[in-house]
Prior knowledge:
By secondary structure, the protein is mostly helical. Helix content is 74%, strand content 1%. The protein has a two-stranded antiparallel ribbon. The two termini are 32 Å apart. The model is unreliable at 1-7 (pLDDT under 50).
Amino acid sequence: MTDSTTSDPARHRLAWLTQRLEFRMIGLAILLAVCLSLLSPYFLTRSNIFNILDQSVVIGIVAVGMTFVILTGGIDLSVGSVAGVTGIILGLAVQNNYPVPVAIVLAVMCGGGIGLLSGILVAYFGLAAFVVTLGVMAIGRSLAYILSGQTAIASIPDSMQSIVYTDVFGIPTNVLFLAVLYILAWAYLTYTKGGRTIYAIGSNKEAARAAGLSVLFYSVLPYVISGALSAVAITFSIAQILSADPLMGNAMELDAIAAVVIGGASLFGGRGSIIGTLIGVLIMVMIRNGLNLMGVSPFWQGSAIGTIIIVALLFERLIGQRVGR
């Protein structure tokens, strides 16, 4: 019995198509950067490039977890509210004199625990991921308000800023963390049996089960990763502003899903890559950054970003269909 549900030729073809998709997305990102640099002379400055990287950290971390979930054919609408409630848990722990590292670990464990609950309901009980995570989203946001007393927690020690405003060899620590996270996620999905199993589940769950793969475990694991990384992401947000607000993480799930889909992942599962997700995150952040530099009103930015996303996905779908034929 093999641990793969696809033949070698099929696997090589899938890898080739994925690489072609990644190259196209890189080309799109470069074209977007060139256009924005022509529209604003400040876009390609050193300070703005570091600003783009800094703005990519929070959504980039959440998008990693979302990639794992979407690859299995699931969806996690709860990442924003999980980030919000775990941020409040972190803030309350620090407020009650817990050491900062202990408070961070506690928040991450709570995020992973929420993800575990969602994963069990989806994988073990067979409930729809959309409905389960929608319910968890509502519960999480409600708990964030209840635990915080409907107010922000501002008693965050200045020492937390060290995870954001220090650097290693000139690279900000938060950006370095993001880079390491993506390398580890890419290596896991590319070279481990667990990564191949996640792809197999998204491609054909019954075939993966027939092949003797641990379908239940690897169907739950992505939700645990997603919940834990939501807590990690909000930790960096709190470290920047030294405040934990129950509204933090609002609409984060939309940005994360958009970044993953722009990066070439299929919402039906089985197709996508970490590299594509990273490119999708950068494209999202570059669009927002460029619109800010051009002085576009925040009220119009949502429409502009939504239009660009839809056009990009339509363009990619048309190209993907041609390649498939």
